Amino acid sequence: MRRTDREIRDINEIIQVMEQCDVCRLALNDEEGYPYILPLNFGMRMEDGQITLYFHGAETGRKYELLARDNRVSFEMDRGHNLVLDEEQGNCTMEYESVIGRGRVDILPEEEKMDALRVLMAHYRQEDFPFNPAAVPHTTIMRLTVEQLTGKRRAKAHPAASRNAE
Q1: Tell me: the pLDDT tens digits for 43-60?
Q2: Distance between CA 127 and CA 111 in Å, rounded?
Q3: Angle 20-21-26 (CA atoms, 0-180°, nearest 5)?
């Protein structure tokens, strides 16, 4: 990371950023040499220092074909976007928090789907959301075992706030 002053080093802070994100973008390896990027809803679990992300989707699609060839992925999620204008100086910047990482994805077997779906629902609503069990066999659940991740934060004091503090 070039701007180490913006790096989030505390894993608990990185987890907090992830918990507040509502979309995770997965980048898969395309057979044509280009990344294939998907915005996905997700759920997250942390056990014994291991972060696992869960995603759901239809039974078929390009993502599954690509994952069957190469299950290595990168991911990105971000939040807290705020444009900060400094009209006096004639410039602007953006506040944000982001997490970038990589890992490997596997497709869950039928017997693990319900637990993963509960993790997904807990991220957005509630863990015990009564979803229709008839839909579960027609839903594919992907599990991303995170192997590496970094967090980054850009927070800039607003010019008016900075002037008032002096």
Answers
A1: 999 999 999 999 999 888
A2: 18
A3: 150
